[in-house]
Design a protein that fits this description.
Elements lengths: L1 H16 L8 E9 L5 E5 L2 E7 L3 E2 L3 E4 L1 E9 L10 E7 L4 E8 L5 E7 L10 E7 L6 E5 L2 E7 L4 E6 L3 E8 L10 E4 L5 E7 L8 E7 L26 H25 L1
Parallel strand pairs: 1-8, 10-16
Antiparallel strand pairs: 1-4, 1-5, 2-3, 2-6, 6-7, 8-9, 10-13, 11-12, 11-14, 14-15, 16-17
Helix pairs in contact: 1-2
C-alpha cells in the first residue's frame, strides 16, 4: 500500500513537471465595414460570423486559425447560397493582427483590402496614427497639423507616424490640390495606442468620410529600477527539459529513501 502511494505521488509530480501542450497557431482579424449603404452578412469559410453588420462600423478582433480563409459578403437576409456581393480570401499567419476592410474600389465596386496592424511597442508618451486610403477616390495628400504625412497616397495604401501630443488635426486633399476633400478630422490619441483612420465613400458622389479604429495596449513597459548589479553575469534561463529532469531525479531519490526506510522497518 505504501509503495502504491509513492508511485501515485511520483506519477502526479512528473505530470505537473511536463510542459503544457502547444497552443493552436492563430491570428486576429478586425473587420471594417466601409461600404456605405450596405447592411451585410459576413461569412468566413462558409460560416456566417457577422449578421446585419452596419456600415461605418468595426468589430472586435476575431481569432482565426493560421492559414487561408475564404470571405464572402452578402446583403443582410440573403440566403447562404446566394451569389455574394464580394468574395475574397484572407491569409493569416500565426500571431498576425490584421484589418479586413470591405469598401468601394476606385471604380465603385465592392472590394476587400487587408492591412497588417503593427503591434510593435511604442516609447513612453507616444501613440501611432495611421491613415488608410480605402475610398473611391484618386491619390490623396495627407497632412497632420499642417505637416505633410504622405503625398500622392493611392487607394489601398497607408501612411503612419508616431506622435506625442494627444490632439491632432488630419486633413486630406486630392493630390497636388490645396482644398480638402472632407472637413479636417480632429483626432485624440491616447498613449500606447494605434489609432487608424480609414477614408471611405466616393469622391464622385460627394460621400467621403472617416471610420476610426483603435488598437490599445502597445505602450512600452516602464523601465526597471537600477539594482547595482551592472557588470554581473546575466541570469540565463534553464535549458528546455531541465526542470522536468530535475524533478524526476528528485522523485527517484525520495523513492529510494522511502524504500530503504520501509525495508529497515520490516526487519
Amino acid at each position: 500500500m505504501r509503495w502504491f502511494i509513492v508511485v501515485a505521488i511520483t506519477t502526479l509530480l512528473l505530470t505537473l513537471a511536463l510542459p503544457a501542450p502547444a497552443k493552436e497557431r492563430t491570428g486576429d482579424v478586425i473587420v471594417v465595414h466601409g461600404l456605405r449603404g450596405l447592411v451585410a452578412d459576413v461569412y468566413v469559410d462558409g460560416q456566417r460570423v457577422l449578421e446585419g453588420f452596419s456600415p461605418e462600423r468595426t468589430t472586435d478582433a476575431i481569432q482565426l486559425p493560421a492559414g487561408e480563409h475564404g470571405v464572402e459578403v452578402r446583403e443582410a437576409g440573403q440566403p447562404e447560397d446566394a451569389d455574394p456581393l464580394l468574395a475574397g480570401a484572407i491569409d493569416i499567419g500565426a500571431g498576425d493582427h490584421l484589418s479586413a476592410v470591405v469598401h468601394a474600389s476606385r471604380g465603385g465596386e465592392p472590394q476587400l483590402t487587408v492591412f497588417s496592424n503593427s503591434l510593435s511597442q511604442l516609447p513612453a508618451g507616444r501613440s501611432r496614427l495611421v491613415v488608410r486610403h480605402t475610398a473611391d477616390a484618386g491619390p490623396i495628400d495627407v497632412s497632420v497639423d499642417d505637416e505633410m504625412l504622405a503625398s500622392d497616397l493611392s487607394p489601398g495604401r497607408q501612411a503612419a507616424r508616431r506622435l506625442r501630443q494627444p490632439s491632432h488635426e488630419v486633413m486630406v486633399a486630392a493630390a497636388g490640390q490645396p482644398q480638402p476633400l472632407v472637413p479636417p478630422a480632429d483626432v485624440r490619441l491616447d498613449e500606447g495606442t494605434q489609432t487608424t483612420l480609414y477614408l471611405i465613400g466616393s469622391q464622385g458622389r460627394d460621400s467621403l468620410g472617416w471610420i476610426t479604429q483603435t488598437v490599445e495596449g502597445i505602450a512600452s513597459p516602464p523601465g526597471g529600477v537600477p539594482s547595482g548589479n551592472s557588470g554581473l553575469a546575466a541570469t540565463q534561463p534553464l535549458p528546455s527539459g531541465a526542470v522536468p529532469a530535475a524533478v524526476a531525479g528528485a522523485i527517484v531519490m525520495v523513492a529510494m529513501l522511502v524504500r530503504r526506510r520501509l525495508t529497515a522497518a520490516a526487519r
